[in-house]
């Protein structure tokens, strides 16, 4: 059975959506670890409620990024993680993690990349007056929201849409599609079995 980890720095709603879908559909896979760089994050509470182990670290208590990434890798190995799913993890992945897990790290971003990388992507798109918005799942490389695109979902913005309801639609799309992409990358078929 393939095991995977989710990294989150904040709310963790995507983390929860993936965990719930995995359980509802009885995937032949296990979300074995939540990793966070914010010990107070809501994602940690969600992991506790779901009985999923978490590794919360304080970056400032390590000498540098390589040092905390080594600690993360140790935890990933302990929990058998073969795939890393970033879901609102607000840090660039460094060389240490990329060397250990390169090609096996994915991220979700709330825009149609390569448009609007970085923070507040939905706000950036809204202020630019785009007529089509969406989400992107991509492999992670050393850049910020760069790396080969795996999947995108788009929707049209209506005249009377507000930033709030666009954000709402984005989250709904993320919760629906990110678990599906993860499932596919784990090599599972529609029934959640090994394909
Ligand atoms: C999502 O919008 C995701 O696209 C972005 O960060 C947000 C995380 O939300 N990378 P949540 O913590 O999963 O609720």
From TrEMBL:
**A molecular function (GO) term:** phosphoribosylglycinamide formyltransferase activity
Per UniProt, what is one Pfam family of this protein?
A: Formyl_trans_N
**Class of the enzyme per the UniProt entry, highest EC level:** transferase
Return the GO cellular component terms, semicolon-separated. Answer: cytosol
* Similarity section: Belongs to the GART family.
Q: What is this protein called?
A: Phosphoribosylglycinamide formyltransferase
- Which pathway does the record list? Purine metabolism; IMP biosynthesis via de novo pathway; N(2)-formyl-N(1)-(5-phospho-D-ribosyl)glycinamide from N(1)-(5-phospho-D-ribosyl)glycinamide (10-formyl THF route): step 1/1
Q: Record-annotated residues binding (6R)-10-formyltetrahydrofolate?
A: 65, 90-93, 107
Task: Indicate the segments forming the Formyl transferase N-terminal domain, all copies.
Answer: 2-182
Q: What is the lineage of its organism?
A: Bacteria, Bacillati, Bacillota, Bacilli, Bacillales
Q: Which organism is it from?
A: Bacillus velezensis (strain DSM 23117 / BGSC 10A6 / LMG 26770 / FZB42) (Bacillus amyloliquefaciens subsp. plantarum)
Which parts of the sequence are marked as the site Raises pKa of active site His? 145
EC code(s) of this entry: 2.1.2.2
Looking up InterPro entries in the UniProt record yields: Formyl_transf_N, Formyl_transf_N_sf, GART, GART_AS
Annotated coiled-coil positions are: none
Q: Which UniProt keywords apply?
A: Purine biosynthesis, Transferase
Reactions accelerated catalytically = N(1)-(5-phospho-beta-D-ribosyl)glycinamide + (6R)-10-formyltetrahydrofolate = N(2)-formyl-N(1)-(5-phospho-beta-D-ribosyl)glycinamide + (6S)-5,6,7,8-tetrahydrofolate + H(+)
């Amino acid at each position: 059975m393939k095991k995977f980890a989710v990294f989150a720095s904040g709310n963790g709603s995507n983390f929860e959506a993936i965990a719930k879908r995995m359980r509802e559909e009885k995937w032949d896979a296990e979300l074995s670890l939540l990793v966070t760089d914010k010990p107070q994050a809501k994602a940690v509470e969600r992991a506790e409620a779901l009985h999923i182990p978490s590794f919360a670290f304080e970056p400032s208590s390590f000498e540098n990024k390589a040092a905390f990434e080594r600690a993360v890798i140790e935890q990933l190995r302990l929990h058998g993680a073969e795939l890393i799913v970033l879901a609102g993890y607000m840090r660039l992945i460094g060389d240490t993690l990329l060397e250990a897990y390169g090609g096996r790290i994915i991220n979700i971003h709330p825009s149609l990349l390569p448009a609007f990388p970085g923070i507040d992507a939905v706000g950036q798109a809204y202020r630019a007056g785009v007529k089509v918005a969406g989400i992107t799942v991509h492999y992670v490389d050393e850049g910020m929201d760069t790396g080969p695109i795996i999947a995108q979902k788009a929707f049209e913005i209506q005249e009377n849409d507000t930033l709030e309801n666009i954000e709402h639609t984005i989250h709904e799309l993320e919760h629906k599609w990110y678990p599906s992409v993860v499932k596919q990358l784990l090599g599972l078929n529609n029934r959640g079995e090994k394909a």
